[in-house]
Amino acid sequence: MAGKVYPTNQQPQLNGAYYNHKQHIPPPATYRAAGRRRSCNPFCCCFRWICSLLLTIIIILGIAGAVIYFALHPKTPKYNLLDAHISQLDVTNNPSELSYDITFTLQAYNPNKRIGIYYDDVLIFLFYEAMQVGQSSIAPFYQGHRNTTILKSNLKGQRVGLQQPMATTLQAAITQQSIPFQIQVKVTARVKIFIWKSPHFKVKDNCNVAISPPSAAAGARLLSQSCNAKWGI
After folding, report:
1. Contacts of 232 (CB under 8 A, 6+ apart)
2. What confidence tens digit (pLDDT) does each residue in 3-22 have?
3. What is the pTM of this model?
4. For residue 230, which of 26, 44, 71, 96 sits 20 to 30 Å off, Cα-Cα?
5. Contact assessment for residue 208 and residue 180, using Cβ atoms and an 8 Å cutoff
6. What are the beta bridge partners of residue 115?
């Protein structure tokens, strides 16, 4: 009995479960669906946003500060002690006391073109061998642009108590016609730029001076000075 022959172009019948059906393979663990972004941690996103904002503010302030600096070109005010005149100077040993009358002439120079200065408080202290023997003040004033202001301050003291060694050295300085004093000027000021006024800042100027007494041949006058100014808030 001859075997049954199938046509060569005809495929055998397959089970329906496998016919024209691809096997499903699960994606790997590292697979990300296309078009989906990883979600950002809220804390990290907020931190990045704050850093970006701060950097932008710093850049803007830096540019603004540079523009203001080059537009105003601020310069430091200058202070100078022009003269010191003693009209009275008496020292006693028993008791050790000092009586004096001294007038100081000060110069304040504002070199700025567009910056004015308000001097709200000016105090002057007089020291001998680190001991304060007098104090005075100057009335508040405003100094305009590129202005030179001459100030006078008078300090008087009657029967100011001294230690015995200080009275002895002061009498020797009078005999030598060169009396060493220390002058301290404390200033509280503000600057004015157009209509804006700055917060208060402080200037402290310390000067070591030598003054001749009224009994000197050339009279009472300023012999020498050495000053050092410090700025602060």
Report:
1. 201, 202, 203, 204
2. 555 555 555 554 554 445 55
3. 0.71
4. 71
5. yes
6. 193
